[in-house]
Amino acid sequence: MATPSRSLQASAVTFAVLSLAHTVSGREWQADPRFKSLARTKAWSCAKVGWYQGSALFLMTSIIHYQWSRNPLALQDPLNRAVAGVVNALLWASSGWYFKNGISDNGWAVGLSAALHAYSVVSNAF
């Protein structure tokens, strides 16, 4: 078995924290009276469930990074590399979207997690 990867462990912790912070921050913007005025509409429903799906994605990413950290050789598998690539593309696109729309704190958090993800995967996949 391969030596456990510290960078993948760090990335797993980062994504767990990001999941928790993402969930908590959702409560903040959902308390905004403008958002509440949309209650029971399609926009309200999609925004609310989509936000928590994002939190679940961060948690799943944390779990898979933890799994990879225990066996970095798993990243030799093309399917694991594909998962890592999709996750990284999603993170960079989300970070860019946040910056484009003036939400720089989220942009930085997601962008930094994307960079750590890319570093930890690439340094263990090749």
Describe this structure in words.
The chain is 82% helix and 0% strand. The radius of gyration is 16 Å and the shape is elongated. The mean pLDDT is 95. It has helices at residues 6-30, 33-36, 42-70, 78-100, 104-125. With 126 residues, the protein is mainly alpha-helical. The chain has five helices and no strands. The chain has one domain.
Whole-number tally of structural domains: 1
**Outline:** elongated
Q: Oligomer, anyone?
A: single chain
Helix and strand pattern: HHHHH
Average pLDDT metric:
95
- Outline the biggest β-sheet: none
Distance between the termini: 16 Å
By DSSP (H or I, 4+ residues per run), the number of helices equals 5
Stretches with pLDDT under 50, minimum 5 residues:
none
Helix content: over 70%
Provide the gyration radius in Å: 16 Å
Number of E-type strands: 0
How much beta, percentage-wise?
under 5%
